[in-house]
Design brief:
Layout: E1 7-14, H1 22-38, E2 43-45, H2 63-79, E3 86-95, E4 98-107, E5 110-116, H3 128-131, E6 140-143, E7 152-155, E8 158-161, E9 164-170, H4 181-186, E10 191-196, H5 204-218, E11 222-227, E12 229-232, E13 235-245, E14 248-255, E15 259-266, H6 267-276, H7 278-290, E16 296-298, H8 329-351, E17 357-361, H9 366-382, E18 391-395, H10 403-416, E19 419-422, H11 426-439, H12 448-470, E20 472-476, H13 480-484, E21 498-499, H14 506-520, H15 523-530, H16 543-546, H17 550-562, H18 567-577, H19 583-599, H20 601-604
Parallel strand pairs: 1-2, 2-3, 8-16, 9-10, 10-11, 17-18, 17-20, 18-19, 20-21
Antiparallel strand pairs: 1-15, 3-4, 4-5, 6-7, 8-9, 11-13, 12-13, 13-14
């Protein structure tokens, strides 16, 4: 290594942590740390809250849980003391009655400092402002771990190593233009490490990429970003990470897999680009006129960078572009969603430690078919030699079930190697209708809706009975569009242990099935998609006839629930989107949607835990929180 260069190797670790599994989470960190150190990594970054797991939610109120995190991070420090490597990792600490979500800096067997998260999100799926305290500019306090007389610096600070000056931050701090990165870069941070637990949302990867490049370019720093991977409850984390030096891409880490990626950068290049950028210099001068200096902790640490080599492009050219992406936009979009949902099923299945197999009630329709395909995607990784053996499927017909859907369900289950059992519920359907009439005093005929719901509830009851005895994970198969307007049965198809596609609109369900048919050619999908979508709970039942075309329904859902438009504001957009439908008909669609949507909220709160993949969903504990009792007079 030439004396003119300050080469360092950055390692981005994506760890699949489980909330509360502090010792196991640190074991995963240690395994990656040892591997990174063997590759001469200088600075290793692990995700936000990697020690305790994220999101801890109200578990953070248990003092023992917080103290266990410190104990395990201390263990990590001791067991990595001999490694010539700095670690930045997420941990929670309790200090003077407050809880802080921190990035910890570890080296030479010691925790040198803690930097609290400043931007605490309380929008969408996040509730951090409810439980954590915010760090702030100029914060400089002494944290005394339980049983220790030596304090650990806690606050807005930098860390000086023999290779350069390090700044650290936590997740949301990067997402604000007014975040701490700006003042830390002006105070001398050349390398800034952001530790994140950023959940997967459709399209979020592109936003992250733009954000990292913008921040690194604006603040003329080397920015390393790492994200956790895996699912905890309904939140799915896609992992991955980035290294960007002063706006130039260095590394993009793989997503949806646990592991690490590493790359070499020259910090002298960051300093040189600062001297060349007159705008950054002017802004830094203006900042220095009023800003107070940040504490800089000098860390007793000796790096070993002699074997590092200057980074060379794989193309062996600094001017030619790198190889083009192997996936097109459509494939990437579909694969991301499918990978995310499969990860959500898999981690729920494995981390709860309560299940031995997966069970799905197949109807021969689109929703249960997609749910089966996603479950099979997980099973291929869990049990590659025989993935279908992990899944039991059940077809429970009544007099309204068609031969086409029976064939579709059986064909797809057979193609995927899953067991397929036919259990008619028609006799039970008759008995339940008679019982219901008896409860009504024998004076009333059952309504059509009741007759339909009896069938759905029988199927759910039998799936629960199967799950109780087999130790199986009963997957709920309903989609978001129909859930939004209450086209579902409480105690019936709304039930299950985990709702896989409850936040996937019907139009997306159909799009994904078309994609999977093209990619795999499953004959079962072809049969599923040949018949109009409908629950088959009554003669010749078609969902779009009873509701409205799904494209219109999904448009209403997005504009009303996502964009928060008033009903009268929906109509102009729909007229532009669907000129083939009269304005009067579209107006009726809007009125019907809004009525059904607001009247169905009471159903949402009774639905099972659902997987989150977008900025809008119907999980009341996460994204769209609406009162159950409400009127539309506004």
């Amino acid at each position: 290594m030439g004396k003119a260069m300050r080469l360092i190797k950055l390692g981005l670790g994506s760890v699949n942590s489980t909330v509360g599994a502090c010792a196991s989470n640190v074991d995963r960190m240690l395994a990656q740390a040892q591997a990174m150190a063997a590759e001469q990594v200088t600075v290793a970054a692990f995700p936000e809250q990697v020690v305790g797991g994220y999101p801890a939610e109200d578990l953070i109120q248990w003092q023992a849980f917080v103290e266990a995190q410190w104990q395990q991070l201390t263990r990590y420090a001791h067991e990595t003391a001999s490694l010539a490597m700095v670690t930045v990792a997420g941990v929670a600490v309790a200090h003077l009655g407050l809880r802080y979500n921190c990035a910890a800096v570890v080296a030479s067997g010691r925790i040198w400092g803690l930097v609290p998260k400043e931007k605490l999100p309380t929008y969408n799926i996040f509730y951090e402002g409810r439980t954590y305290a915010r760090g702030h500019a100029g914060m400089d306090e002494a944290f005394f771990p339980k049983g220790m007389n030596t304090p650990v610096p806690l606050g807005d600070q930098l860390f000086r190593f023999d290779f350069g000056t390090l700044g650290v931050e936590v997740c949301e701090d990067l997402w604000s233009a007014d975040g701490p990165l700006r003042r830390r870069a002006y105070a001398g941070a050349e390398l800034v490490v952001n530790v994140s637990a950023s959940p997967f949302r459709i399209g979020v990867e592109g936003t992250r990429r733009e954000l990292v490049a913008t921040r690194a370019g604006d603040h003329q720093c080397t920015l390393a970003y790492t994200n956790c991977v895996g699912a905890n409850d309904g939140l799915i984390f896609d992992g991955g990470g980035f290294i960007n030096q002063n706006g130039k891409w260095v590394l993009e880490a793989p997503r949806f897999k646990e592991g690490y990626a590493a790359a070499v950068v020259d910090l002298d290049r960051t300093q040189r680009l600062r001297t060349e950028n007159s705008t950054w210099r002017s802004d830094r001068e203006a900042h220095a006129e009023t800003a107070k200096p940040l504490p800089v902790r000098t860390v007793a640490f000796t790096s070993q960078r002699e074997k590092l080599k200057y980074p060379v492009p794989a193309s062996k050219s600094y001017f030619l572009p790198s190889a083009p992406p192997v996936r097109g936009p459509r494939e990437a979009w579909c694969e991301d969603i499918l990978d995310a949902l499969a990860l959500g099923i898999g981690d729920y299945f494995e981390k709860t430690r309560a299940f031995s197999k997966i069970g799905i009630a197949l109807s021969g329709g689109r929703d249960s078919a997609l749910t089966l395909l996603i479950a099979h995607r997980f099973a291929q990784k869990k049990k590659p030699e025989n993935p279908g053996s992990l899944i039991d499927t059940f077809y429970m017909p009544t007099r309204y079930s068609s031969a086409e859907t029976a064939h579709a369900a059986q064909t797809l289950a057979k193609e995927l190697g899953a067991s397929f059992t036919v259990v008619s519920i028609d006799e039970a359907f008759e008995r339940e209708m008679e019982a219901a009439k008896t409860m009504l005093g024998g004076k009333s005929e059952l309504t059509g809706v009741t007759r339909q719901n009896v069938q759905a509830r029988l199927r759910a009851q039998r799936m629960w009975n199967w799950a109780n005895t087999s130790g199986g994970l009963f997957l709920q198969t309903g989609n978001m569009s129909e859930k939004a307007v209450g086209y579902t049965t409480v105690g019936g198809d709304l039930m299950g242990a985990l709702a896989v596609i409850a936040n996937v609109p019907k139009t997306v369900v159909m799009y994904l099935l078309d994609y999977l048919l093209e990619k795999h050619g499953y004959e079962g999908i072809r049969w599923v998609t040949q018949k109009p979508a409908g629950p088959e709970l009554a003669p010749n039942q078609v969902g779009e006839d009873e509701l409205m075309p799904f494209a219109i329904l999904d448009a209403c859902f997005h504009l009303f629930a996502g964009e928060k438009l008033a009903p009268a504001e929906l109509l102009p957009a729909l007229v532009s989107m669907f000129p083939e439908r009269t304005e009067a008909r579209l107006g009726a669609d809007v009125a019907k949607f809004v009525k059904l949507f607001t009247q169905s909220i009471y159903k949402w709160v009774q639905s099972p835990l659902s997987l989150h993949i977008g900025n809008l969903d119907l999980d009341r504990e996460r994204a769209l929180q609406l009162p159950v009792v409400t009127k539309n007079e506004w």
